[in-house]
Design goal:
The chain has 98 residues and is an all-beta fold. The chain has a domain of 66 residues. It has no helices and seven strands. The protein starts with 7 loop residues before the first strand and ends in a 5-residue tail after the last strand. The structure holds zinc ion. The site of zinc ion (ZN) has 7 residues, from loops.
Length: 98
Amino acid sequence: MPSEPIILSLNGDGEYVLLCPVCGHDCSHIDSAFTRQGSDPFENGRYDGTEVRESSGWRRSALVIRVEGECCHNWNIVIQQHKGNNFVSVEILPESDG
Ligand SMILES: [Zn+2]
């Protein structure tokens, strides 16, 4: 099992700041959010306010937040519901062109 990426840091004001999971840089931009649709015909809904872009491979749909780091790393934060839990994972994407 891979080690968990560190994606949150507590700043001096007591706020959690999103970090780049590759290099730890603390400046990033939210690019988009979308639904990765699940396979269950009754429980595979699109999350309100998002469009369906991909299929999840899971029974339930996942919410994906795509983030662009000012460090040029890009990643997805994936929230995948499964049996009452919401699993949070990070997918590192190819680097942007700058
Ligand atoms: Zn980075």
